[in-house]
Amino acid sequence: METVREKTANEDGMLMPSSKEDEYLAQPKLPVPRILFQLMLIGGVLLYSSYTILIHLCEVDGHVPFSNAAAVLVIEVTKLLLSIGMFLVEVKQEQQHSSVSVTHYLGFLRTRLREEYSAEDGCNTSSSATVTSKFRLVAPFAVPAILYTVTNNLGIVIQMEMDPATYQVLGNFKILSTAILFRLIIRRPISYRQWFALFLLLVAGIINGYAACKPSQIYRLTNFDASTSNSSSVLHITLKGIVLISIYCTVSGFASVYTEYVLKKRVHMSLNVQNATLYVFGIVTNGFLYVFQESAVAGSFNILRGFSVYTWILVVTQAISGIFIGFVMKYASNILRLFIISSAVIVTTVLSVLIFGLVLKTSFFFSAGLVVCAVILYHL
Fold first, then answer.
1. Which of 66, 109, 157, 188 has its CA 20 to 30 A from that of 308?
2. Cα–Cα distance between 175 and 274 in angstroms, integer?
3. With 0-12 CB in 10 A as exposed, 13-18 as middle and 19+ as buried, what is 174?
4. Which of 318, 301, 282, 302 is nearest to 75 (CA)?
5. What pLDDT was estimated at residue 108?
């Protein structure tokens, strides 16, 4: 007898790996029309680009009035609630029986969840899995949460070893590390033309990062004295900073590629269930981080302290953006995610001109041109 998930998989037309080698390259069929997906990409870029704008709109007297850890935690909770809500709707739509009673729906939901968490990689089964197999199924979802927590905290430490502009510039090497790890882990081929397109994307990010620097801010490294100079206004970097930024780019790239690997390896699972599982671990790690930071600073544990209307708009937009990035990772790739991020930087700059009166520099047009060329070149 055909199970609920088996029927769903057949209807969705999921591509299942035919061999162990192909398992790493399995690509689920896009569940929406391509034209709709392209429109979603435009919306995704706008959502991603709204982050910096909304952060500035949240500022009071030049400072953000809320805890960054609190905002991240609330965003994770919002993403979890949205994912659960979408899964409940998904199950309701798949319910094939005429009965609409709450009891029957809950029974159907329980069966569906059991199948989601009991099926082995790529295999559909309704039998109960052992505790060990369930742990092996769920544990990989904890890895991205831990890695993202590490990179978030590492980013703070790194900025002690270099100025903000250098941090932004060198941080763009995440593009290179992500592409290399994508090739090694996902095993999808990248042509020489596509590598060159990614290189253009990297150059565009470097140019955009240094564009904010004034000529008077550039010092020789040998002339820099941390005790007498404003470290945020002088270009500088230490040997420790070079090591840390290298680790940061590698771990950040691995976190995103590993997330894609988990989503695609367990192609039989609903994306909403996968996202919800990821967000549960994200809430746990960020929850510990929030408690640690608040106990060291304020001690009041008022998670909504300093929240405004703009803050809540930030929470909702970033929650939707995060869910969409998960959609991109499962049904497209991390490479497309890189293009979304790079395009969002350009859109953010344009929005800053319209909202804050930012004056554009020539370097911006050069950087934007490189991003456009990279997008076209990669997808030729």
1. 157
2. 25
3. buried
4. 318
5. 82
Which residue in this structure is represented by tokens 């990989």?
140
- Compute how many other C-beta atoms are within 10 angstroms of the C-beta atom of residue 40: 14
Read off the pLDDT band of 167 (50, 70, 90): confident
pLDDT at 254 > cutoff 70: yes
Encoding tokens for residue 262? 């988990």
Report how far apart, in Å, the C-alpha atoms of 117 and of each of 8, 129, 135 are: 15, 8, 10
Q: What is the DSSP string of 3-26?
A: -HHHHHHHHHTPPPPSSTTGGGG-
102-127: average pLDDT: 71
Q: Cβ atoms within 10 A of the Cβ of 357, count?
A: 7
The one-letter amino acid code at 268 reads H
Q: Are 141 and 255 in contact (CB under 8 A)?
A: no
Q: How far is the C-alpha of 210 from the C-alpha of 142, rounded, in Å?
A: 35
**Beta carbons of 149 and 281 less than 8 angstroms apart:** no
pTM over 0.90: no
Distance CA 97, CA 91 (A): 12
Q: What CA–CA distance (Å, rounded) separates 180 from 185?
A: 9
CB 253 within 8 A of CB 177: yes
- Structure tokens given for 181: 């790890």
Q: What angle do CA 142, 313, 51 make, to 5 degrees?
A: 65
> In the numeric block, which tokens belong to residue 292?
């640690």
Angle between helices 4-12 and 102-118 (to 10 degrees): 70
CA distance 175 to 169: 11
Token readout for 248 is 């940061």
For residue 326 the two structure tokens come to: 């998960």
